[in-house]
Amino acid sequence: MPTSSARVVVDLDVTGPTISRHLYGHFAEHLGRCIYGGFWVGEDSPVPNEGGLRLDVVEALRALDVPNLRWPGGCFADAYHWRDGVGPKPDRPVMVNTLWGDVEENNHFGTHEFMALCELLGADPYVNGNVGSGTVQEMSEWVEYLTRDGDSPMVRLRKANGRDAPWNVPFWGIGNEAWGCGGNMRPETYADLACRYATFLHDHDGNQLYRIAAGAADDDLAWTEALMKAVSCLGCTRTPRNVFQGISFHYYTFAGDGIAKSPATEFSDEQYHRTMAKAADIDRVIAAHSAVMDAYDPLRRVGLVCDEWGTWWEAEPGTNPRFLQQQNTLRDALVASLHFDIFHQHAARLRMANIAQTVNVLQAMILTEESGDGLVLTPTYHVFEMNKGHQDATSVPVHLVDGPDAVAVGDDRFDPLSVSASTKDGTALLSLSNLALDTDTTVRLDLRGRGATVTRARILTGDKPQSHNTVSAPDAVTPAELAVALRPGALGSTELTVVLPPHSFATVELHVD
Hints:
Elements: E1 3-11, E2 18-19, E3 25-27, E4 49-50, E5 53-54, H1 55-62, E6 68-71, E7 95-97, E8 103-105, H2 111-121, E9 124-129, H3 136-147, H4 153-160, E10 171-174, H5 187-199, E11 210-217, H6 221-231, E12 246-253, H7 269-280, H8 282-296, E13 303-311, H9 330-345, E14 350-356, E15 366-368, E16 375-377, H10 379-387, E17 393-395, E18 398-402, E19 407-409, E20 412-414, E21 417-424, E22 427-434, E23 440-448, E24 452-460, E25 480-481, E26 485-488, E27 494-500, E28 504-512
Parallel strand pairs: 1-23, 3-6, 3-14, 6-9, 9-10, 10-11, 11-12, 12-13, 13-14
Antiparallel strand pairs: 1-18, 2-17, 4-5, 7-8, 15-16, 17-21, 19-20, 21-22, 22-28, 23-27, 24-25, 24-28, 26-27
């Protein structure tokens, strides 16, 4: 097998921006089997549940320290009217989900059920409101219903529906993909609407809202600039108007042939390389949006939010193609690990990210059987678990001094080695990805500035990048202990040596002085 080597310097005593835990957020849309059959089975289901929420899914996700959960969409958000999903379940009207499969939904999973789910997960709710087919009043009253105490029409309605105390709901999305399914608007049109809606989304009783304007697809900088112009002006102020606090963008990864154009588990070496090149390009996209925002907001008061990201392949054979259920391979896990390294680098501006989606849809953490109570943890799930130590940690500089050559993919290229690091509470976490298809890489890390001892090292890999987990083989791709070498280095540093096999992801946990 071919081999390569790399030298990396990690400055453990140099502090960078905090890696917000919200960069590890999740997304649950009324799409396919994400909600119904994924999170929700109903109170009468033989699957163990609490109030209709399936407990095996909740238990698995609690191990990830899920920081926030986005709901009810996605495109579905701009067709969803929240009052249809509160009150006694028999009285809730049936709706047709015209966006995703034209199926009927009984609205049994609504606002109270979502809030119960967030409480079980220990996650902050991220509620996405309806701009496309809703009204300012509708969204404003939803905020009041959820977060206001005392006495008001919405408070009385909430109490009549069984909840006396308000909830804490910090994150609010102002519509979704307004350039497409959310209304096919021009950026300037939506920017005016976003300001209008945000004005009437009030902070009630100490619940401070983080209002997120729906932004661009990929690198459409016109959307970001229109939204920044709505709250600031070029070079004339240091502080934008405090109308909305975040701007989103969406970025999906595929094999260079477009969304949903190739299978999830059957792909060529070239398709693998194209996937990694597309995943790596999110670095350029984030930098471009950040540059536009910096021109209007040099103090970085407005956050950038990537509230939909992940891989998008063909739906699994035999499933409804509009349900977007796909398998999840080691390739997907490496897309996630690479994204997180890039997110960490941009933590000064990037405040939140939400993978699409949590259960049974697109790049899911968990796959559940359509009948029965079987559950599979995907390779991507394990990346989130192995990386959770970065949440709210301080990023530290990582310098690739020497390493393998970049992989050329047509006019694009990507580096086969990706590394990030952070420190928190006397610990450090190193994340390393070897994206090469057939090359072992020996990585020598010079850990500088603080003494370090290894407390745990793990690796996630498989026989091939197509490897994935199933009900019959749930541990085909699962973390294993990794042997590493630690010895004194030059000038008081510590030298850590890690051997990474092809298509692998590793984390090394350290105690630091």
